[in-house]
């Protein structure tokens, strides 16, 4: 039977291809400025206080079995993506304590912007976001896709262990005091971190403002630690943040290609968006033994892959995101705190779709309406 192919007037589509149209002078991305930070404690309680972030101190490769302590891993209970409520609470706190008004066109987690930024080269990871327009601001949260839900429900013991490796690497690479205070390898604080119980409820979030072209953004982002800091705690910590990552060691050309094509784009996007200058990669073998450490500068990543066959291009990503944001702000017009738009990317080479959902999945909680209202 022939299908009715009349387009649904309530669905808007932003084509991703051809990518050539984004290959031009880069849209300007302002250096992000941190406006506040907050943390979650071991019980996942949120605190907006002046407790310091942890400091980088290189992992000892001899302690590098990343599976150690897995049986004691305290893992955050989570069923799918987090709401943006804690981020909104932190912004309200700024408004109440400093009287600053919140100026932004789009507010979300950095992880959501990362997924959007990488979309031109995304081949196999569909995403879906919910967005509510309220008082001229678009608030965006993540929805779990069917693919992500199946991955979560069918995750194997090995894939759960591999998630632990990432957190264990963070534990083995950080300490509670600046590295300058550690005078010897026998320092008890190094022994302590080696034996510490990994609890991924604990997290530090930096909130920054920036803009891409004419789009003013506010984003909250998990940050891992600080590097090259002597006391006192830096007033503008962003250029002292570093991102920690684990990756499989690269044994051959194929491994290098996969790393550069699929991992480096995400590493770059994640750190670039909040202005983190350096990434430390812990390379591990298939059994989770840490083999080497490598420091890379975020801004040098695009050059590392430039001109290589079947790679990705950072300027294309930025121009894509800029034009997508402009377009999104043009189609998200119904200002209704009780409703939302679904923004979805289902298949590579297809478009991004936006559909309005009346009285469904509002992104803001009731407590946010008055502080973010007119
Ligand atoms: P790796 O990135 O080294 O694998 P982040 O690097 O963003 O700070 O995240 C820290 C760790 O959290 C990751 O370490 C990984 O172990 C886990 N993690 C983060 N996002 C994840 C995801 N989408 N799926 C599975 N694990 C994830
Ligand atoms: Mg992190
Ligand atoms: Mg990390």
UniProtKB/TrEMBL annotation:
Provide the top EC class. Answer: hydrolase
Q: Does the keyword Nuclease apply?
A: yes
Source organism of this protein record: Rhizophagus clarus
Name under which the protein is recorded: Decapping nuclease
Q: Tell me where in or outside the cell this protein is found.
A: Nucleus
Grouped into one coarse class, the protein's main location is nucleus
The prosthetic group or cofactor this protein requires is: a divalent metal cation
* GO aspect biological process, one term: nuclear-transcribed mRNA catabolic process
- Tell me the keywords, alphabetical order: Hydrolase, Metal-binding, Nuclease, Nucleotide-binding, Nucleus, RNA-binding
Q: What does this protein do?
A: Decapping enzyme for NAD-capped RNAs: specifically hydrolyzes the nicotinamide adenine dinucleotide (NAD) cap from a subset of RNAs by removing the entire NAD moiety from the 5'-end of an NAD-capped RNA.
EC number, as in UniProt:
3.6.1.-
Similarity comment: family membership: Belongs to the DXO/Dom3Z family.
Q: Which reaction does it catalyse?
A: a 5'-end NAD(+)-phospho-ribonucleoside in mRNA + H2O = a 5'-end phospho-ribonucleoside in mRNA + NAD(+) + H(+); a 5'-end triphospho-ribonucleoside in mRNA + H2O = a 5'-end phospho-ribonucleoside in mRNA + diphosphate + H(+); a 5'-end (N(7)-methyl 5'-triphosphoguanosine)-ribonucleoside-ribonucleotide in mRNA + H2O = a (N(7)-methyl 5'-triphosphoguanosine)-nucleoside + a 5'-end phospho-ribonucleoside in mRNA + H(+)
> Mind telling me which GO cellular component terms the entry cites?
cytosol; nucleus
Superkingdom: Eukaryota
Citing just one GO molecular function, the answer is: mRNA 5'-diphosphatase activity
Instruction: Cite the RAI1-like domain residue spans from the record.
Output: 30-358
